[in-house]
Amino acid sequence: MVNRKELEPEKSPSAAFGQRVRTLRDERGWTQDDLAERMECSATHISAIETGRRPPTKRFATGADRVFGTGDRLLRQSQAVRQTALLEGFPEYLTHEARAAEIRLYEVGVMPGILQTTEYASALTARAVERGAITPEQGDERIALAATRQESLKRTPPPLVFVVLDESCLRRPVGSPATMDGQLARLVEFAAMPNTVLQVAPFDMGDRRPLNLPVTVLTLPDRSLMSYAESSQRGHLEREIASVLPMLTAYHQLQAEALSQASSVAMIEQLRKGTP
């Protein structure tokens, strides 16, 4: 079959679920269009499920069990996917981040994952485990993912990465003083890289701040745009250019109002010295 993507079921629970769906579909001689018609969704959605690019929702798994006559086997398998520490929608975002030509992100309150040191990520995770928000295993997944994402930024050619941090990211203590010092030092190192720009949006920007919530805008190799934002329940990818362009415009306005990279690094160094 032309353009039939090879699956890697060992890569993730989503990939394993996708292989199971493809196997069941192949056993019945159905195309993706055939299954999509029975599932009342699109063939593109079926493709994303089968290749592990989109995790199955409970509704999808229940519908697949009904169509395939598999009892509740797919529903039970999908639970392993949903019991991850990652928000629904985030795994799909990661596939695009890993190939983006440009990454623009704005963060509030906490360092973004692509900049977190292991010690900083571990301190955040330990608190989440203490609160019962995630399991220790999910915590390990989060820490490993932060390291993996940072390694992916070292690909050749590397992406251009623009980061604007709300001042709260710098002033919110996480872990020990040594943990924070190491994290701030990591920011200085990041700013010195040839393919990065780091800026701080200071508190005194006040109502001149065009963005109040974290957001990421990706420029893909074909120059198409995509934005990503999160709620407390899920992540949302936006591909409609009419929705993404205003987000990109607001990001550029944010950069214009934020401190320059030199002033941002100076602020970080002052915090490392313990001066206001």
Notable characteristics:
276 residues, alpha/beta, 434 Repressor (Amino-terminal Domain), Endonuclease, Chain A, 2 domains, 6-stranded mixed β-sheet, 6 strands, 50% helix, elongated, Cro/C1-type_HTH, DUF5753
What secondary-structure arrangement, pairings included, does this model have?
Layout: H1 13-27, H2 32-39, H3 43-50, H4 58-68, H5 73-82, H6 90-97, E1 102-107, H7 118-130, H8 136-152, E2 160-166, H9 167-171, H10 177-191, E3 196-201, E4 215-219, E5 225-230, E6 235-238, H11 241-257, H12 261-272
Parallel strand pairs: 1-2, 2-3
Antiparallel strand pairs: 1-4, 4-5, 5-6
Helix pairs in contact: 1-5, 2-3, 4-5, 7-8, 10-12
Question: What is the tally of beta strands?
Answer: 6
Radius of gyration: 21 Å
Indicate the percent of residues in helices.
40-55%
Give the distance, in angstroms, between the N- and C-terminal Cα atoms: 64 Å
Low-confidence stretches: none
The CATH class label of the largest domain is: Alpha Beta
The total number of structural domains is: 2
Instruction: Report the CATH topology name of the largest domain.
Output: Endonuclease, Chain A
Order of helices and strands: HHHHHHEHHEHHEEEEHH
Q: Which of globular, elongated, flat, extended, rod-shaped describes the shape?
A: elongated
- In terms of quaternary structure, the protein is single chain
User: Roughly what fraction of the amino acids lie in strands?
Assistant: 5-15%
Count of DSSP H/I helices: 12
| Largest pleated sheet | 6 strands, mixed
- Look at the helices and sheets and give the structural class: alpha/beta
Average of pLDDT: 89
CATH homologous superfamily of the largest domain - what is it?
Endonuclease Chain A
Can you tell me the CATH architecture of the largest domain?
2-Layer Sandwich
Read across the widest sheet, the strand sequence of neighbours is: 3-2-1-4-5-6
